[in-house]
Amino acid sequence: MQRSPIGRLVPIQGTDEYLREYSYFAYLPDPLPTDISLSNEAWNDVAEATGALSALGQACNPLPNPGLLITPALAREAVDTSALEGTYGALADVLEARLPQARPASPEVIEIRAYERMAYQAFAWVREGRPITIGMLENLQGILATQSRNPPRDPGRVREHQVLIGPRGCTVYDARYVPPPPDDRLRAGLDQWLGWIHEDLPLPAPLRCALAHYQFEALHPFGDGNGRVGRLLVVLQLLLHGVLREPAITISPWLLKRRELYQAHLLAVSQTGDWNPWVSFFCHALREQAQTLITGAGSLMKWLEGVRAALNERHWSGVIVKVAADLIDWPIVTASFIADHYDVSAPTAKSVIDRLVEIGVLTEMTGRTYGRRFAARDVMALVEYL
Fold this sequence. Notes:
Fic-like fold; Arc Repressor Mutant, subunit A; two-stranded antiparallel sheet
């Protein structure tokens, strides 16, 4: 990166967390461009991603409840964006942990659930018409940091120490990438980035998201959680610019399958200044995930219509109809959860579950006669596909 046309190396020195002294260089990216020259192939990829996002927005419009797609997609996003950072949890465990009476979750699931809380808070912030700010980003990162298995040194604020990208415990000399030093230049770079994402620029939204995501990861403003916050910011930008009315897009499931290529593309931008490969790669992620989520929305609607038809055929009405519809939000339930959530008696809650088991909508998970949990396995299978 010594001759990078979009950044420069700056000298750094100090002592790392293992008390090893170093004297080396960090990479400081230039401000993002307001105009950009791309290959025809990259522009085509931008156009296809733009069209796919438009189609996803249209697919969400007729849904009676936008959560029909958003809630399950976010669950999958939470699992996979965390996996990209080395935190692994089963989707079923994450969904089960949502229950108020859930057993103590593993540290991994607790960390993944923190991502979900962070995301919902961020969505609410943008929906209220509030701009993305450093304080807002610090607050989001703080939510992650409080539940992290390895809390950063400066949770909930822009980092005040040098960080490295590479194998855990590596020296600065062995790092794959050394982000900017934690001084005024990092803060200035973050200020410039924020100004750029809010500026009215004649650039298509997928292109803006690709450039902004690279810059955020290059700056690496926090001691931990940069990847998860950075990927969430893609969704926030699409909401901010009015491309989507609902936070229905996810990209981490696609990126997780291509983890090494994802990391290599980000690094290559800093090394070469060539935006084309990264922009095309990123736009493929947006396009293919939008198409997957459109299919997923259709599948969930078809499932729900089938369940409603089965209930109507048996002339079952009342709370069972509400519980069945909400299984997309809560695909794992217990009798006590239904009793509390829908304000019904314990016998009524048990009857609802028994009937849904009878028609194959719910399946008992534990094999026990007490503390039983029931899952809408068809919904969970569809969420795994998203």
